[in-house]
Design goal:
heterodimer, A: 514 residues, alpha/beta, Rossmann fold, globular, B: 369 residues, mainly alpha, 16 helices, 73% helix
Chain lengths: 514, 369
Amino acid sequence: MSGEPDAPPALELRGIDKRFGAVHANRAVSLAVARGSVHGLIGENGAGKSTLMNIVYGFHPADAGEIFVRGRRVHIHRPHDAIAAGIGMVHQHFMLVENFTVLENVVLGVEGSRLLAGGLARARTELERLARDHGLEVPHDATIENLPVGLQQRVEILKALFRGAEILILDEPTAVLTPQEADALFRMLGQLRAQGKTVILVTHKLREIMAITDRVTVMRQGAVVAEVDTRATSPRDLAEKMVGRAVLLQVEKKAAQPGEVLLKVNDLEVRDRFGVSRVKGASFELRAGEIVGVAGVSGNGQSELLEALAGIRAPSRGEIWWAGRDLVRESVGARERRILGLAHVPEDRLRMGVVAKFSAQENAILGYHNDSTYNRGWLLNRAAIFADCEKKMADFDVRPPNPRLRFSGFSGGNQQKLVLAREIEHEPRVLLVGQPTRGVDIGAIEFIHRRLVALRDAGKALLVVSVELDEILGLADRILVMAGGEIVGEVPRAEATEEKIGLMMAGVREEGRR
Amino acid sequence: MSAPAKLPRWTEFGLLPAINLVAALLLSGVIVKLIGESPWAALKLMLDGSLGSQDGIGYTLYYATNFIFTGLAVAVAYHAGLFNIGAEGQAYVGGLGAGLVCLGLGDWPFWAVLPLAVAAGAVFGAAWAFIPAWLQAKRGSHIVITTIMFNFIGSALMTYLLVNVLIKPGQQSPETREFAPNAFMPAIHELLAKVGITFAPTPFNFAFVLALAAAAFVWVFVWRTRWGYALRVVGENPAAAVYAGIRPPRVIVGAMLLSGALAGCLGLNELMGSQHRIVIDFPGGAGFVGIAVALMGRNHPVGIVIAAVLFGALAQGGSQLSFDMPKINRDMVVVIQGLVILFCGALENLFRAPLALLLARRRKPDAGD
C-alpha cells in the first residue's frame, strides 16, 4: 500500500498560510502524503481544503510555506508548474470542451507539434497504454457531450495522467455521480494506487473517506486538526473532528402519520426553453404529515419539477391539484401559490432564493414583501421588518444575529437557515425544499434536518429534492426516484436501500412498473 | 480575490471619488500645460467662473438642475438592471409635453400651469421610454441599443415638429413662439427679491427645488417602498425576482416609465425656466452627462445631486475658461469634462485596489478573522 518506509513523501506541505482579506483560509497547514497511497482531505465547506489544493495546483500563491514533491522543494506559481512537478487535478466542475472528442480534449494544450495529426497519433498510443495499465477505457473518438458523466470524469483523469501526473488531486469527485458510478471511480483509484500513483481525495463525505482512503487529514477553520490512519478511525470520530463537537449523523424521527392529500400532481410535463422535455409525465401525491424525498443524479429533471410546482416554470402539460383547484389551468403564479400556503426553498439559494447583496432583513421578506405585516401605507414598515428578521434569526439560530448584515457575509449554513426561516415561519401547508443542506456545515445540517422533521410532525407536507442519497434516506418517509426526467420508481423508506435507489437513479426501472 | 475590493463607506462615497476627481484634474492640468497655458490659472478661472460669484453659482446650479433630472433617470433604470442611454431623447420629447402645456394654457395662473406642465413632461418622457422598455421586457431587444435609436428618432421628430408644425410663423429659426409670462418658472433671484435678498439675475430657477424634490422622491421610492424593493430585486437578481413572484417584465416597463418621466422633467428647467419657448436641441447633451452623474453619484440621489453640481460647475467654469483663455476653446473644455467622466466613471476601480490595500495595512493590527 504505502511506498518504502524511508522514501520521501510524494507530496509534502510545510506551513502553508493563506489569507483572503480578513479571512484566514489556511493557517500554517502541514501535510505529508505517502507515495502510492490514497489520502483523504476532509473538512466542512469553508474549512480551507479547496484553497489548499488550489495553492498546490498553482491557482493561488501561498502567503507563506513550502511545497516538496518527492523530497524536492518546488515553486509553484501557476498550474503549468504543478503539471511539470507531476501534479494533476480533476476539478469538481469538469474542464472539458464539450464539443471536442476525447482525444482532442486529452491533447489540448500539449499537442506537441504545429500540426495536430502527429500529436493526436501519439496521444492515441499513449491512451491505449494508459487504458491497459490502469483499466481506464474510453472511446477515443466520442464527443464529450455524448458521454455519461462518469466517463467524462475518466477523461479528466486521463488528461492528468497523459500530462505525466504522479500525484492526482480529485476535488469532490462524486458530487455528480450515482452511487454505482462512485464505486467504479473508487475501483479505478484503487488500481491507480496499485500502480504506484498517489491520490488526494478532497471531499466532505465521510462514507467516501472510509471506503477508499489509507490516511485522512481533517481540516477545520483553515487548520489541520487531525491526521490519522483511516483504519484507526470511524465516521463518528471524523465528524466530531470536523465540527469540533459531537454530532448526530442520523435524524431521529418517529414514523410518519400521513393524512389528507394536499398536493396531487398528474402527468406533469415540463420543457426547457429549447423545447426539450425535462420532466416527462410525473404523477404523485403529497400528503399532510409526510416527507417525500426525490432522489436522482443532478440534472435529471428534479430542478424543473420543483420549479414547476413552485409556479416559477410553466408546465407544458399536466395538472397540479391543490384544494380542488388545478393550479396549472388557472395559471396560479409563484406569488399566489405562496399566499395559498405553498412555500419553496430553492435548490440554489444564491442563484434564485436570495439577493446576495441585500441585507439579511431585506432577504427575509423576499416573496412576502407585499404582506401587510411589512407595509404601512405606501412605505415599507422598517421597524416591523427588522423585528421580524430578528425573531427569525433567533428562532433558527442564525449567527451573527444582525439583520443589517449583508446576506453574502453569512456562512452557507446560516444563509440556508435564514431562507428556511423565511419560508417556514409563514406557516405553509406544503414546503418544497431543494438541496436542503447544499454548502451547509455539519452542525447546521443537523439543525435543518430537525426543523424539517418538526414541520412534518406539525402536519405539513414536504417534498425534499436532494442529490445526497444519504440525506434522502435519512429524511424521507417515501422516496421518488427520478432518472431522465421520469419518475422511475417509488419506494417506501422501509424498503429503500442505497443499492436499490442507486440502480433506479441509473435508470434501471423498478420491477413490475410499466 | 477578483471581486472589487470592499471599502468603508466614507472611503467609498467620499475619498475615492475625490481621488478620482483630483486625478482627472491633474491630467487635465498636464494637457493645459501642453497647450501652453498655466494649469493653475486655468483651474482658478474655472473655480472663479463657477463658484466664485453669485453669477457663477446661479449658472452652475441652473446647469446642475438638468443633470439632476437626467442623473436620477439613469439611476432609477440602473437599479432595475437597465442601462438607459435614452435620457437625452426622453428629455427632448418630455420637453415637448411641458412646452405644449405652456403654449396652450399660458393664460392660466402659474400654480395651475405648473402641475400640468410637470405631468405633461413626465408623461411625454415616459411615453418615449415606453417602447424601448416594452421591447426589452417582451422581446428581449437590448435597451441600450433601442434607447440610443430612440434618441435619434426623438431628435428627428422634434426637428420635424419645430420646423414644420410648431415654428412661429414668419420666423427663420426653428423654435416656437415665447410662452406667456404666466408659464415662466420663477427665477430664484426673483423669489429671493420678494424676501428682501438680492441675488444676481441668472437662469437659476424654481425647477432646482423640483429637482431636489424629485431626488427625495427617488430615494423614498427605491429604498422605502415595496415597488422600489421589487425593482432592486429585479436589478440585482432576476432569477430571485421570478422566485419571489415578481414579474420582471412589469418591473422593467415600470422602471423605464419612471426613468423617462424624470428625464422628461428637464424641460421644466430648460424651457420654462430659461428659454421660455421650445428650441431645437434644448437638452444639449444633458441626457448623456446624466449617465456620468449617475455613475459618479453611485446611483444614489444624494450622490447624484453632488455630482450634478460638480458637472454644473464644470459646464459653467468651462465656458468661462474658454471665454477668458483664447488657447482653450470649447472642445478643450469637453476634453476636461471627458477626463472627469473617464476617471470618475469608467476608471472608477483604478484606485480602489491600492486604496483598499493601504487601508487594510493600516488596520492590520486589529484585523480579526
